[in-house]
Design a protein that fits this description.
Strand order of the largest sheet: 1-2-3-4-5-6-8-7
Strand content: 35-45%
Order of helices and strands: EEHHEEEHEHEE
CATH architecture: 3-Layer(aba) Sandwich
Oligomer: single chain
Structural class: alpha+beta
Radius of gyration: 15 Å
CATH topology: Aminopeptidase
Helix content: 25-40%
Number of helices: 4
CATH class: Alpha Beta
């Protein structure tokens, strides 16, 4: 493991234990928005469990983007659902620190994550985007995701319901 992708001054690497506090902080900021339907930030122990569950051979990834050694974003993939028939589908997500958005960090993360998923025995990547979020939609489309539909009022946060637009991207195992 080590350096796997570089974009401008951003390097994408496998997450390590020393990155987890920064990952937790970036996600905690997202919890204060409708970008995720978590109502409370996950504990550091939950992030440790996520890191322990990484398995590139299964398509379960946790990657970080580093700029000058600082974690500025992360991407993850994991099971879409826990039923066996979904074993070849991975749900993906990317979160970028607010101070580093619009600088190619999300593109670097998704580029590396999807390249890795192409090497895993998975057939489909899926992602949900809380509406409205044109920047996230553009990121997904730029990486080959297509819209498959909108779940209306599927999430409740901040005293209101939210729609989620779902995207999918076919994968070709072993192609990367």
């Amino acid at each position: 493991m080590g350096v796997t992708a570089t974009s401008l001054a951003t390097t994408v690497v496998d997450a390590r234990p020393e990155h987890l506090e920064a990952i937790a902080a970036i996600y905690a900021a997202a919890v204060q928005t409708p970008a995720t339907f978590d109502l409370e930030p996950p504990s550091l122990e939950r992030w440790r469990e996520t890191l322990r569950a990484t398995d590139a051979d299964a398509g379960n990834e946790l990657l970080v983007a580093l700029t000058d050694g600082e974690v500025v974003g992360f991407a993850k993939s994991g099971p879409h659902k826990d039923r066996g028939g979904y074993a070849t589908t991975r749900e993906t997500s990317v979160y970028v620190h607010a101070d580093h958005r619009g600088r190619g960090v999300g593109h670097a993360l998704y580029g590396e994550l999807l390249a890795r998923l192409e090497r895993a025995p998975v057939l489909l990547a899926v992602a949900g985007v809380t509406q409205p979020n044109p920047a996230s939609e553009a990121l997904h489309r730029a990486h080959g995701f297509t819209e498959v539909g909108v779940f209306r009022g599927v999430g409740v946060k901040f005293g209101r319901t939210w729609d989620v637009r779902w995207f999918q991207r076919p994968l070709t195992p072993g192609s990367a």
